[in-house]
Structures are given as C-alpha cells and as structure tokens.
Amino acid sequence: xxxxxxxxxxxxxxxxxxxxxxxxxxxxxxxxxxxxxxxxxxxxxxxxxxxxxxxxxxxxxxxxxxxxxxxxxxxxxxxxxxxxxxxxxxxxxxxxxxxxxxxxxxxxxxxxxxxxxxxxxxxxxxxxxxxxxxxx
Length: 136
Fold this sequence. Notes:
There is one protein chain. 20% of the residues lie in helices and 27% in strands. The chain contains three helices and nine strands.
C-alpha cells in the first residue's frame, strides 16, 4: 500500500505549485516532485495509496465558486448565500457571526439545519433542504 517514497502533495483545484510561488515567494513551490490533486477524493485516495507525504500544500478556497452556484438565502439577502450543493456562507457580519465562513450544519429531526441571524439579530434554524428548495 505505502511505497515509502518521499513526495510533495499539492491540493488545489485551480493553481499549480509554480504559480503559487509568484505570490507566496516560498522556494519549495519551485522544487520538483509535487503530485497535484484537484479535489478531496483524489487527496484521500493518494494518501491511502502512497502514505503520508513529506509536505502538503492545502488550497485555501478549494472548490468555492468553481462548480457551485450561489444564491441569496430567502429573507437574508446580502447576509447569507446558499449553494446548489447545500453549503451556506456568511457574506455580511451580523452581531454574533463572523464573515466569510461556511456554516457547519447540525442534524436534528428535520435533517441538516443551520442557524441564521438577520440584521435585527433574530435567530432562526432553517433546514438545508428548505433553503435550497426556496432559494432555487
């Protein structure tokens, strides 16, 4: 399973190691032996087959905007967006929230839900299914 050869793993759906060097200015990005994977599943499969790499470079925005379509959440325009994959992101801070974060849903009796706050600081739990259905 593990061939014990040293390798560098570069996880990014858009960039390559040499283009990353242009803004990171770290010489390692110009070195050889990078294996490039473009998604989580390829990342996991490679590690399962080759073992833990010597170095891993993680994408800071993996998949965001690349294939997902985003729309405003009904009743929360300008505060939250939901993707066609069911991910909810905060785009404007309200009291008690942090901006530019993807919300982590919790599971309850109606399925996966997120807690949303509006500008008046009212809090509501909404199911991901309901949000997708009513936003698209």
